[in-house]
Amino acid sequence: MRASNPIVISVLLFSTLLALQVVNGALVNNFYRRTCPLAERIIQDVTFRLVRSNPGLGAQLLRLQFHDCFVRGCDASILLDTVGTNPSEKEARPNLSLLGFDAIDQIKSEVERVCSGVVSCADILALATRDAVSFPFKNRPRWPVLTGRRDGTISRSSDVTGNIPSPFSGFDTLKQIFEKKGLTVSDLVILSGGHTIGVAHCGTFSRRLYNFTGKGDADPSLDPKYANFLRTKCPNPADPSITVEMDPRSSASFDSNYFKILTQNKGLFQSDAALLNNTSSSRLVRSLQNPRFFSSSFARSMLKMAAIEVLTGNNNGEIRKRCRFVN
Ligand code: HEM
Ligand SMILES: *[C@@H]1O[C@H](CO)[C@@H](O)[C@H](O)[C@H]1NC(C)=O
Ligand SMILES: *[C@@H]1O[C@H](CO)[C@@H](O)[C@H](O)[C@H]1NC(C)=O
Ligand SMILES: *[C@@H]1O[C@H](CO)[C@@H](O)[C@H](O)[C@H]1NC(C)=O
Ligand SMILES: *[C@@H]1O[C@H](CO)[C@@H](O)[C@H](O)[C@H]1NC(C)=O
């Protein structure tokens, strides 16, 4: 994949974009064309600068965007700080270690300097995520991003429950959560490929290593040699300061290796392993080992995820001045 022709990729992305214009309704290509023509350029420049000093930023933002879109839609509600006594989304239990908030603040303030009150935090998150993940493949955006989202004004930690899947979820729960968002089982499998980059804390999977059923046993669906390796990384009880790669030895590269290790029973979470527990999803896991197929599929599913319950038009939401606070 590394050597692929950029023109072929552009054509692929473009046709994906055309095909999805319908699905994405009100979102459009380059929404700020007239109101802030430099917006996408500034976002990309700042993002590239930030990734250079923090190579993990792509993974951090990708997870942040996922958590944003699955709770009240892609409205940047995940970015809001708690005000008063009602805890915001980012305080909820599954936030465990969400990062990237400071990067969004920096990008937003550089955009505001040029176009004040024009570009939404929700669009900045979507664009910066794409740019950060694409950075190691300079000049080769991994997926197209449509824009025109507005920012929500509500963020409640209680809304997180039941909308963000847990690493202990089985197939049926995962399927249900994705279907509630208008995403299919295929989208579930394809987007789980986001775990090709980034890291996880030991506590999210250590039960599989030490005490799967409460009898001091390991999860039989986890490769025993890989479980041995993970036990050397993660002593029992789980140390909250330790993280491991989700896609071993390939966690910095956005490739299809996640689907290969999955078929070797080396998926890190029960929710990863669960993708093998259904005939049609496990067939898709095998197909997605093909890098080109993974690449084009991921782009298509990201367009769908990035359009979940978006606020658009002039009467919905607002354009926040600061991403952590409503105006
Ligand atoms: C299918 C259900 C999913 C579950 C149960 C799940 C669960 C998790 C968990 C538990 C972590 C580790 C958090 C930590 O310990 O710090 C994680 C990390 C991550 N997830 Fe997911 N996830 C799911 C789907 C997705 C999707 C759809 C995406 C994006 C397309 C995604 C992208 C990521 C990324 C990039 C990381 C690494 C973050 C970092 O390195 O900071 N995940 N996920
Ligand atoms: C995540 O939630 C916990 C409470 O469960 C809170 O203490 C922590 O500050 C939150 N993390 C972020 C990044 O807001
Ligand atoms: C394993 O789980 C059981 C039941 O939850 C608990 O009583 C026991 O202390 C755990 N053992 C270890 C080694 O964590
Ligand atoms: C998948 O199915 C196997 C049995 O075929 C079962 O042992 C395992 O617990 C299931 N895994 C998940 C995550 O549901
Ligand atoms: C697998 O998932 C598909 C799609 O949700 C469903 O139609 C099918 O019944 C499932 N098969 C099994 C064996 O659970």
From TrEMBL:
Domain of life the protein comes from: Eukaryota
Positions annotated to bind Ca(2+) 2: 196, 247, 255
Binding annotation for heme b: 195
Swiss-Prot/TrEMBL catalytic activity: 2 a phenolic donor + H2O2 = 2 a phenolic radical donor + 2 H2O
Cofactor dependence: Ca(2+); heme b
Pfam family name, one: peroxidase
Protein name stated in the entry: Peroxidase
Native species: Cucumis melo
Lineage, uppermost ranks: Eukaryota, Viridiplantae, Streptophyta, Embryophyta, Tracheophyta
Gene expressing this chain: LOC103497894
